């Protein structure tokens, strides 16, 4: 059944109560609401724990979407106990991991500002993220790092605005990615905006992000790889070159 995905409106919500609505044969758990982000748009789904009334925990290995975006399935690790339909659980997101992914995902958006080329692929990771651009130019990774850190240091606000699916269809040019589908199908689309009045950037995205660029922290471009005649892969890491955080 459709889930109330609380993370869509509050990226910092790491715990909530929820009622079990379904338990699949493979152990996947559906809930009436969740603060667990489901794998989408290059960002991994959350891990964490579901706490039962007696204090025992069901440890989750991943969170993913079902057949549609309004279904979220919480996947326990092997041999974890199964809850009962109708049971109330307390959800606990692995916050340290989620927060690193939030910082990384926001860093990817900043990179798309510094390198204003069409995006051909992206993957957000805890230690390293990558963004692929449709470009042939040669660019210096230290220069890109300096521009990224300038945006981080300026501490621009990061926030959501909502538009309808129809608004997005009428303005397709706001999508930077060439092959990642914007988060449509729910009636409304989230725009991740950076800077006052979107002065730095505005991009359709269903991922989780920090609330101001300073939270990204120290990042750098570790490597720029040539992946085809017109494709360059940028690898973002935390910390300074040679000193990853």
UniProtKB/TrEMBL annotation:
Matching InterPro entries: Ala-tRNA-synth_IIc_core, Ala-tRNA-synth_IIc_N, Alanyl-tRNA_Editing_Enzymes, Thr/Ala-tRNA-synth_IIc_edit, Transl_B-barrel_sf, tRNA_SAD
Main subcellular location: cytoplasm
Keywords for the protein's UniProt record, in alphabetical order: Aminoacyl-tRNA synthetase, Ligase, Metal-binding, Zinc
SUPFAM superfamilies recorded: ThrRS/AlaRS common domain, Translation proteins
Subcellular localization, as worded in the UniProt entry: Cytoplasm
Domain Alanyl-transfer RNA synthetases family profile: start-end pairs: 1-245
This protein's name: Alanine--tRNA ligase
């Amino acid at each position: 059944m459709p889930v109330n995905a609380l993370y869509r409106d509050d990226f910092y919500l790491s715990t909530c109560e929820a009622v079990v609505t379904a338990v699949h044969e493979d152990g996947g758990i559906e809930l009436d609401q969740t603060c667990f982000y489901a794998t989408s748009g290059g960002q991994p789904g959350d891990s964490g724990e579901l706490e039962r009334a007696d204090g025992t925990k069901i440890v989750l290995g991943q969170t993913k979407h079902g057949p549609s975006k309004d279904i979220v399935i919480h996947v326990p690790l092997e041999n974890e106990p199964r809850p009962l339909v109708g049971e109330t659980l307390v959800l606990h997101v692995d916050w340290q991991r989620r927060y690193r992914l939030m910082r990384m995902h926001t860093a990817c958006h900043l990179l798309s500002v510094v390198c204003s080329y069409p995006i051909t692929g992206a993957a957000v990771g805890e230690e390293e993220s990558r963004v692929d651009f449709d470009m042939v130019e040669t660019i210096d990774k230290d220069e890109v790092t300096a521009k990224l850190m300038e945006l981080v240091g300026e501490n621009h606000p990061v926030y959501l605005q909502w538009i309808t699916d129809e608004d997005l269809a009428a303005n397709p040019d706001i999508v930077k990615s060439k092959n990642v589908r914007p988060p449509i199908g729910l009636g409304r689309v989230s725009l991740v905006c950076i800077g006052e009045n979107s002065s730095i950037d505005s991009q359709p995205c269903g991922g989780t992000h920090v609330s101001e660029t300073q939270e990204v922290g120290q990042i750098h471009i570790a490597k720029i790889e040539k992946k085809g005649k017109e494709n360059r892969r940028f690898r973002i890491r935390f910390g300074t070159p040679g000193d990853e955080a």
